[in-house]
Amino acid sequence: MAIPEARADLIDEILKDHAAIQALFARVESTSGQGKEEAFTALRRKLITHENAEQTVVHPLLERLGGKSVMDERLAEERKGEQVLAQLSDLRVDDPLFETMLLQLKEDVVRHASAEESEEHPRIAAALDMNRLAQLGNDFRAAESLAPTRPHPRGPSSPAVKMISGPVVGIVDRARDAAEDAGRKQASRKRATRPAPQKSAARRPAARKAPTRAASVTKTSVRRTANKTSTRPTARKSTVRRAAKKISTRPAAKKTSVRRAAKKTSTRPAVRKTAARRSAARKPATRRSRTKQGSPYTRAEIAQIKREARDRNLSTAQIARRHGRTVGGIRSLAAKEGFSLRPKNR
Ligand SMILES: [Fe+2]
Ligand SMILES: [Fe+2]
Fold first, then answer.
1. What is the distance in A from the centroid of ligand 2 to the CA of 99?
2. What whole-number distance in Å separates Cα of residue 285 and Cα of residue 59?
3. Which end of the chain has less Cβ packing within 10 Å, N or C?
4. Which ligand ends up closest to the CA of 15?
5. Could you give the CA distance from residue 137 to residue 123 in angstroms, rounded to a whole number?
């Protein structure tokens, strides 16, 4: 829309805003991620401050010029737009609903601005001189600088009340904006300085080593816990604690196994001893059964001694040495069994 020289200030300020709002819509649509978020914040602030300035400067003027019905229509559109902006502010910029709602808002805002330019501006331009328009232009810029920057769809719609409450709400909004901007800058700096995530290859050799099954499992559990990207530190801690419990309970299980094994080994010698004792107890009985009662010789040994005595090649002392007996013992055996020994001088 061409701006005649005499109408410059108030209407020019409004038209510049309309052009800036359209450019911001285009910027939101053409960007993504953090850029889209920042563009939307700029659009939201511009739309809200612009409409608030219109409501406190332009609408009262229109009412005085007999354009109340036009003003009411524009006000209803502005209130609806503020509600949509509030809903959009609660959405993430990558939400598909955000794009749909943004497109609808853009169409509504363009239609609204077009109605202002065609129905309000000619009426104002026709009624006011250049100086008054210039003065109102200054008022408009001042109102924008003090206006709220965030949607308050449940706030007052009356221009008189807005004129009083707007600057107060604006101070609060701008303080929130400053905090929001600082947080965004800090997050951006952190992203820029964050080291590139290391590949998990460094962990693999440790997993392959796995000295024992239990140690391997517990190490893997702890590693998995540490690698979790959960944003809840308490949840991580509890998981780590569980993993730590696992580690502490496994050696206990091992101890039990060791104890069982120790018991097994300790019982074996006992069994052996018992068996040995039984065996030892049985053996003499067997030997006794094969010899005469009370004789320390086996039948085979007695028969051998008899053969050696009969052959006369060995002396009594030699026979005794062969069998680990005493000479007296051999003589007693010979007397008992009725065989003779070689005479002493042969
Ligand atoms: Fe408007
Ligand atoms: Fe406007």
1. 22
2. 130
3. C
4. 2
5. 16
pLDDT tens-digit profile of 196-213? 666 554 444 444 433 344
Domain residue limits, the chain:
5-191, 264-294, 295-346
- Ligand at minimal distance from the CA of 81 is 1
Quick check: 137 and 8 in contact, CB under 8 A? yes
pLDDT digits (tens, 9 = 90+) for 304-318: 998 888 888 888 998
The amino acid sitting at 211 is P
Phi and psi at residue 4, in whole multiples of 5°? Answer: -65, 150
Ligand 1 mean position, distance from CA 51 (Å): 5
- Most confident stretch, 5-19, 100-114, 162-176, 287-301: 100-114
**CATH code 1.20.120 for 5-191:** yes
CA diameter of the chain: 171
Could you say which ligand is closest to the alpha carbon of residue 80?
1
What pTM does this model have? 0.54
Please state the three-class secondary structure of 281-327 as a single string: HHHHHHHHHHCCCCCCCCHHHHHHHHHHHHHCCCCHHHHHHHHCCCH
Distance 231 CA to ligand 1 centre (A): 43
Confidence category of residue 185, pLDDT binned at 50, 70, 90: confident
pLDDT at residue number 127: 95
